[in-house]
Sequence to fold (391 residues):
Amino acid sequence: MGGNQSNLPQKPLGFEYMCIAIYKLDKLRIILGGDYEISIVRQVIQECWPKGIQRELFQLNGVHEFKLKGYPFSYLSSSNNAKASRVMAERILHRLYRDGWKLQLSSNLTRTKDKTTWFFKKVSVQTFPSKPFLVVGLSSYDSLMIVNAPTELHQLFKDVIERTWPNGIQKWNYKDDVLVIKLKGYPWNPDGEDTVHSRALLNKVIADLHQRQWKLYGNSNFKSEANTFFFEHDPNLPAGQPSPPQFLISFNSTDLLRVINAPQNLISAVRSTIQSNWSRGIQRESSYAGSWEFKLKGTPWWADGEEAVESRYLILKLMEALQAYGWNPVAAFDSSRKESDKSTLVFRQSQPRQSPFFCISLNESDKLRLINTPEDVTKVWGFFSLIICHS
Fold:
């Protein structure tokens, strides 16, 4: 492999997945998409990115790359470019969804070059979303950039900020269908108690939009460490009724786990899960800015080797335990630009059920680890790996 791009194996018949990688500051790579999907992305770029396309490059066996003029995926870009890049991302996701390509997840796969990768699955779309996705982007260190929001939702954002962000609003600007709310303080580069308040703000945005028939479709780091959120209008959601309760678990610094906006009975469930599945134990715990904070022994969020495996195993066991209590993990987001802060998990109340979780973690520069994986899945993975090695 070395420093060169490897050719992909031939796409299997009936394989109904593709992905789009946002690469460096100016590239989009469509992997295992067909000519029609490539034409959709090309058309969207031409419509939404004023600077246009610098070049296109086709690589053997299913990779098509667009190199754009300018730097659409730099968080240092101007406000106009930030708007254009978010509109472009929304249009790509929305148009692909209308053609049966539904976003399954987004993930960061490399440490230096990829911004994010969107993974899509071909699905049967009975009724496609007629309204554009509502886009909520975390801009700079202190602002929300909201695109495609009906004006009747503007008050929702104002109310949420007033209830959850103690520092308040510094500036409110609505122009060309884009609402920019500049907050006082630095919610996306927070210190102290603001690390809790900024996450509580986003939890409330997700919950209140769900109540207004806007459900979270996906979120990704396509510009920087802080997410952009895409919401789909779903008229089948019950309008005006309280949305299912939500709470958060955030991972901070190298050893802190905070439970935010959770019912009191879940604190003991989290505590017992940590005690059972983190051999180093709990150093201390206390109330912090309205959350409950556990300081773990060791450095689970800044780990390698066995400790890195154990920290992921702990998170899997937390999700299993909370699902048994009737709280299902529905999303993970990044809201802080601080390197020491990690992802935040969103849990929503649901029917209790028992089901195992496993994860595939990407480690160092060349390792895949399967953690808490059922034996039958491990055997399938071993067979798949053998095929790849001999292809």
